[in-house]
Amino acid sequence: ENKDLSLLATLDLTRTPMGGRLLRRWLGQPLLELDDLNRRLDSVGYFHDDGFRRSNTTALLSHIPDMERILGRINAGLVAPRELLALKEGLDAVPGLVEQLCAPLVGSDAEAGSGETGSDETGSMDWLSRELSPIPEAAALIESSIAAEPSGAVGEGNVIRQGFSPELDELKRASHDARGFIAGLEQKERERTGLRGLKVGYNQVFGYYIEVSKANVAQVPEEYIRRQTLVNSERYIVPELKEYESLVLNARERLDELEKSLYRQICGQISESGSAISRLATAIAQLDVFVSLAEVAMRNDYVRPRLDMGGVIDIKDGRHPVVEGVLGPGDYVPNDVYLSNDDARIIVLTGPNMAGKSTFIRQAAIITLMAQIGSFVPASQAVIGLVDRIFTRVGLQDDLTTGQSTFMVEMVETAAILNQATPRSLVVLDEIGRGTSTYDGMSIAQSVIEHLHNDPRLGCKTLFATHYHELTQLAGTLPGVRNFTVAVAEEDGDVIFLHRIAPGGADKSYGVHVARLAGLPSGVVNRAWEVLSELEESNNSDGRPIGKKSRRDRTPDLQMALFNPAQALADEVKALDIPNLTPLEAINRLYDLQQKARNPGDNV
Question: Which of 169-178, 228-237, 254-263 has the lowest mean pLDDT?
């Protein structure tokens, strides 16, 4: 799956890792508290209405590191010196963030998409500015103790800033001076002995040594003490060299121990401010999300929804935020949605394949979710009665790990919805029943709608997309059901999908049209037209649509079987690899075969 084509990717313009993680959590945990939601919306509006403030805050947030991660590494003793410098840079940016929260309104973008659902004022950000409490002592400690450009590992003398520890500075000078002496010794000995190839080296076994090539061994002074013979050279030591070696190694060892000890002390002092840093990181993450949602709202012309505890979802000119982002500005066809726990609980949506039914029902759920995380929404106006859960049953897939068929997965998920939904829930069902035979699927779809409508424990707002056009008849017997369809235009045998949702029901699926658009060979398409004509003529031979016939009238000849159903069923049984089926797979296959045996006319 393309992660860029997700709601999270659409809304995520955060500048800090903490903000990105918080936005993800918000999407997974929408709110039910009206006051908390309105405070979030006020905060988004605060930046939505002032482009100058939004731009300045975004620039400051870009300098904030992952404080939560750095704090965790400090507590674990794993933090690197450069991470401490990054933490200090983030702490230094806090006063600027507070200033943006307290500064007067400079420029307003509010007229660009305010809509009627916006509040009269965006409210105060004092609550957040109080959480953005600077920690000057931690910033000052890092500034005074860590070198501006730390290099190498802690203990090599390049991490602690000059002047922080006089003892460490003295060890650095001693080590530097001794190394300088050894480097000067090489040049001095060359001049004294006349051995131009002479060099001073070091290894872990012999320490510092003087190396002379074999050709010049005869010229080596008598005070040189041989320590190692190589193929092309000899290695020597002198008392003066070993004396300075002792100084160098002792200084280095002490320097290593002291710098590591000082670094641990610095990290320990910073960790004492851990709770304050954690609270600050949380506040910065919230600020980052508010600015991100405000920027997305401005770029895409979102409006502030009006939230209440009522039972109505009323969206004017709603748009699917992800699909709109793919299509580009102005190309998406907006649609209205009205659902009420009283008079319009269930929308039965019919229409052609590929016309946008699934996009429409998902759109309503996404807009509701966005409103309940405190985001502005893609619409010209939106009133959202808070829902306690959003249930969806969309898509088709097997669960191979448990041996569940496509239809079984569909039924398990539908059962979970019917058992867990409440009157305050929003339910989105897409093509329930398509995973089984026509009559079984239609029967299940109708019974699900009736249950959602009639069960006193439910009565929840539902969007039900289906290709069973016969279900539109339910609006005549169930007062809470409303029929809608996706409008199309036919011209010279071609179909134009208008993507506009209109009241009423559809009477055709235009499946063969879609097959032609998909590129099926013309011979296949032409034959499909012929078979379709035969089926329609046979199914309506008694003057009644299929949906109005009784079950005992539904004989195999009405299904226009293209082969012998009994023979096909027998062949399928013979082909079963029974020894290699799991018990659950065997039950599923037996269930499928039983359904085909009961409805032989559906096995086409």
Answer: 169-178
How many contiguous H segments (helices) and E segments (strands) does the chain have?
A: 19, 14
Task: Give CA–CA dist 486/350, Å, rounded.
Answer: 7
What is the torsional sign of CA 418, 419, 422, 428?
negative
Task: Tell me, yes or no, whether 498 lies in a domain.
Answer: yes
Number of domains in the chain: 4
| Whether the predicted pLDDT of 179 surpasses 80 | no
User: Based on the domain organization, do 366 and 471 belong to the same domain?
Assistant: yes
Task: Pull the structure tokens for residue 30.
Answer: 């929408």
List, in sequence order, the alpha helices (H) in 455-582.
511-517, 522-539, 565-574
Q: What is the pTM of this model?
A: 0.78
Q: How far is CA 182 from CA 216, 221, 233, 244, 447, in A?
A: 21, 18, 20, 7, 93
Does 503 lie in the same domain as 445?
yes
Residue 538 belongs to some domain of the structure: no
CA-closest candidate to residue 75, choices 63, 62, 90, 87: 87
- Write the DSSP assignment of 141-210 as a string of letters: HHHHHB-SS--SSTTSSSSBPTTS-HHHHHHHHHHHHHHHHHHHHHHHHHHHH--TT-EEEEETTTEEEE
CA angle 234, 238, 239 (to 5 degrees): 155
- Within this chain, do residues 90 and 119 fall inside the same structural domain, yes or no? yes
116 and 177 together in one domain: no
Residues 560-592 pLDDT 10s? 444 456 667 777 787 787 877 787 777 888 878
Q: Which residue has the higher pLDDT, 454 or 397?
A: 454
**Structural domain boundaries enclosing 569:** 555-604
148: Cβ contacts below 8 Å, ≥ 6 apart? 85, 161
Domain containing residue 437: CATH number: 3.40.50.300
- Beta-strand relationship, 233-237 and 426-430: unpaired
pLDDT 10s digits, 473-507: 999 999 999 999 998 887 776 778 888 999 998 77
Residues 429, 473, single domain; the answer is yes
